[in-house]
Amino acid sequence: MRFFKVAGFSLFVLVLGMASGYLWLEHAPRHTPRPQPPLAELDARSLGSLRAAFNAHRGQGRILVLLSPT
Amino acid sequence: MRGASALQEVLSGVQEMPLAVFVVWEPVLRTDLAPPTTSVLGLIHDPRALQYWDHDRVLSKDLVRTALTDPKRYSVTEDVSPNAVIWDTVALFPREAEWGKDVPVPVYYGHPVADRVRGLAEALRAQRDGGQR
Q: What's the pTM?
């Protein structure tokens, strides 16, 4: 009986921890360092804006980097 | 993460160089459940950087499409699947290049980023000193 109580409590703590982690990840602040502009969303419609920004810096070196956040 | 820190180190070494750095974060790993947090975005703190979140990996898809259209132009030597995901990759472009329908041919590119920053730094120095347009 005690085993089931401990197991149940452990499961509760685990689920609570996972839920908290997920909520934190969902609502965590996402600010870029100053003076960079805010984080921009990229999708099929806004890909053109990345292209435009790239071309707007013509005459300078331009680096494009693709990364995973974790 | 290692790639972001390594890139920032390179950028710190060429602070005087006119440069635009487009940082595109995309979900690739199982743990990539959400856009990068402030601490992750802070890994690249160079003022010349612009940061993006690409949830649907549209840039990667566009780069794959471009590479498959003309592999020789981009010196693609390995087989690229139409479903491939381009990530942990860095590219430096010529100063006068324009991104039209397809992304221009880079003067330098490679992956993983952490292993390619030395080459990137050399390519940047060459560009700064006028060796490459």
A: 0.88
